[in-house]
Amino acid sequence: MKYGYKTVWVPVLFLTLGITLSQLNLSWLSAKHAAAIPARYINGTNPALSFRQDTLLFKGQRYTGYVFTLFANNDTAAILGYTNGLQEGISRLWYPNKQKREERLYIAGKKEGIHKGWWPNGKLQFMFEVSHDENTGYFKTWHPDGKPERIFHYQNGKEQGSQKMWWPDGRIRANYVIKDGEKFGMLGQKICINKDVN
Fold first, then answer.
1. Which of 69, 120, 124, 62 is nearest to 87 (CA)?
2. Which of 20, 57, 78, 116 sits in a 20 to 30 Å window from 87, CA-based?
3. What is the distance between the alpha carbons of residues 172 and 162, in angstroms, rounded to a whole number?
């Protein structure tokens, strides 16, 4: 037989869940992660699933496969991959309107790569880079109308370099630089003045 159960099972599962193959778009899944996570799917409401700290167990054993959750109308809410009980590969979440909500990459339970989130209207909500579970590089957020809210830069999990924030109306809220752990510029904080001191 040319096709094994894995080849047929994945499309049938997602079509049953109301996701077409064009909506699924598996191009984001690297060969490393596709090979690491077998095509085994369990509903997140299954009582045999449990967590011990950050480790997912199925019937008391570390789980390897995918966990999916559904909205009340049986549309897919989330698909999360696990290897040996730890999150692995791309995790995807959706809104009830079938709009993508989040895409995050995990390797051995740690956040890695570029993480993205969207507002229910489809506009980007956040995008940031992570390495070994720490923010590194840019961290960007947007207001629901698509205007920028924040552009921060990180190095080894700490703010470094230029940091900017905007109010929803587009006015600058903060604009500062962090150099050697010190902040320089407009921080967007209220200055407290004690009126009793001369």
1. 62
2. 20
3. 14
How far, in Å, CA of 133 to CA of 137, rounded?
Answer: 13
CA 154 to chain CA mean position, Å: 17
Amino acid at 124: L
CB atoms within 10 A of CB 88: 23
* Residues 90 and 79: beta-carbon distance below 8 Å: no
Extents of the domains making up the chain: 1-104, 123-198
For 26-65, write each residue's pLDDT tens digit.
444 444 544 468 889 999 999 999 999 999 999 999 999 9
Determine the Cα–Cα distance for residues 104 and 81; give it in Å rounded to an integer.
Answer: 11
Rounded to whole angstroms, the Cα distance separating 112 from 89 reads 9
In angstroms, how far is the first alpha carbon of the chain from the final one? 89
Q: Tell the burial category of 32 from Cβ atoms under 10 Å away from its Cβ (0-12, 13-18, 19+).
A: exposed
Task: Please give the pLDDT value at position 6.
Answer: 37
